[in-house]
Amino acid sequence: MPDIAEFTQYVPGILLSYAALLVGLISPGPALLGLMGVSLDRGRHAGQRFALGIGTGSFSIGLLTLTGLSAVLATYADAMTAIRIFGGLYLLWMAYRAFRTAFRKPPAVNSTAIAENTRQISGRGYYLRGLALHLTNPKAILTWIAIISIGFSDGAPLWVGAAIVVGCGMISTSIHLLYATAFSTAPAISIYRRAARWINGLLGVFFAVVGIRLLFSR
User: Fold this and answer.
1) Distance in angstroms (rounded) separating the CA atoms of residues 137 and 160
2) Is residue 211 part of a domain?
3) Is the pLDDT of residue 100 over 70?
4) Residue 2 domain-assigned?
5) How many beta carbons lie within 10 A of that of residue 167, not counting itself?
6) Residue 7: C-alpha distances to residues 12, 156, 157, 163 (Å)
7) What is the Cα–Cα distance from 82 to 20, expressed in whole angstroms?
8) CA-CA distance, 34 to 45, in Å (whole number)?
9) Parent domain of 145
10) What tens digit of pLDDT does each residue of 8-50 get?
11) 210 with 91: CB under 8 angstroms?
12) pLDDT tier at 73 (50, 70, 90 boundaries)?
């Protein structure tokens, strides 16, 4: 167990790591926009499973970073290249799905039909999509490297890294679940029905632009 002096020495860095994560969660990115699209189009059940996948991905990246991902990326330049290629291809796939939804005629259904349709969707499938999106997101990986660097300095005990990874993982999961719930509310669904094509079209453009940039960046 850490003593009081050790605890007070490292807590500011841990809290700063949490703050850095919150800033990253507030700023729009592939995970947030992907979650918004799923929650609006498929409802709360799908959005929450997608959010749990993102949260698991966040925790996994944090754990890998703590155990040496940053050292691997610094030593092997091809590792980041592979991550960037997989991330770019996945984002292009997300763009294709968004464009397909944008050009598809939206069905006129009531709230009961939406709930029934949502229950037919595989929760595991949306969970895996959220997980894949986050694990192949270079922004998330680089953000975690920064987060670990902020709070886990040289010589810091292991409990500091554990507090950062577990705390940030819980924060990420909770915030994304809140996003999924908010984006699937009746007002949000009503707005989405009126602007579904525009929303999905913009999501498609965003995913396509970011995916292409990832594939061709050096």
Assistant:
1) 25
2) yes
3) yes
4) no
5) 17
6) 9, 11, 10, 11
7) 26
8) 15
9) 13-22+30-216
10) 888 988 998 898 888 778 766 788 888 888 888 888 899 999 9
11) yes
12) low
Select the highest-mean-pLDDT range: 25-29, 159-163, 165-169: 165-169
Q: Bigger pLDDT: 60 or 105?
A: 60
Q: Is residue 185 part of a domain?
A: yes
Distance, in Å, from the CA atom of 125 to the CA atom of 19, rounded to the nearest integer, reads 31
Look at residue 6 and tell me if it is in a domain. Answer: no
For every residue of 188-212, DSSP letters joined together read HHHHHHHHHHHHHHHHHHHHHHHHH
Q: Which two tokens stand for residue 109?
A: 């259904």
Closest CA relative to residue 35, chosen from 168, 180, 184, 157: 180
Number of H helices, E strands in the chain: 10, 0
- Tokens coding 15: 């809290």
Residue with tokens 């959220």: 130
Choose among 217, 176, 183, 139: nearest CA to 50: 176
How buried is residue 100: exposed, middle or buried, by Cβ count under 10 Å (0-12/13-18/19+)?
exposed
- Domain count along the chain: 1
Give the Cα separation of 99 and 15 in Å (integer): 40
At 147, is the secondary structure helix, strand, or coil? helix
Name the token pair of 120: 């037919």
